[in-house]
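Progress report, Aim 2. The chain analyzed during this reporting quarter is listed below.
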Amino acid sequence: MAAIWVQNLLKLQNLDLEIRNLKLRMTMIPKEADAIKKQVAAIEAKVKAAKELRQNHERELKQNESDSAALAEKIRKLEQQSGLVKKNTEYRAMMDSIAMLKDAISDHETRSLELMDLMEEDAGKIRAAEASAKVESAGLREEYEELRTLYREVQLRIRELEKQRPDLRNGVDSEVLPRYEQILAKNSGIPLVAVEDDKCGQCHLRLTPQTLNNARGGAVTFCDNCMHIIYMD
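Predicted structure tokens for the chain:
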């Protein structure tokens, strides 16, 4: 059985390591939450892009129809003017202009049909994107809420452990406590480690015979190399 000072220090260390791990978990939760937010934003961006594409096609269709109407008005005016023209050359020029305008209107009508087909496709893409987003976002939002709940639970657990710490700390040998807390504060591994095959459980380097004898005798002992606290059962 390990010495009493080791047993008491192990109790404190177990508590402190749990606190350390919980605090580390707390630092990761916000990053995970941000990653989820980005995923949700990316999903919503797909829906937005599909809607914007349809809006662009709608605007183009309206502009196309407006341009067609303007061309038709030009044809109407030219046809009115053609009745007043007496020279054949001027009349033929007007007829050529009217023909060109009619060709342009035909092109606009063809484009309008294409745009209406595209808008129908857009509507299908929007429905598909919204359906997919609904399913994916629901799962991500649920995961996000679980992270928020976990964060609160971790906070509560840390508070519970920190309340227990003073009593455990008071039970630790004053000779070893400063070194223990120094190592713990640096977050450089585990302060109190067992000797394994005559080697330090922290740095894994071989210990001197005198250090091993001290540890076997249950004395407060430090590694010759890394100065971590060592013990033997």
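The first strand starts at residue 192 and ends at 196. The chain has a mean pLDDT of 94. These observations will guide the mutagenesis work planned for the next reporting period.
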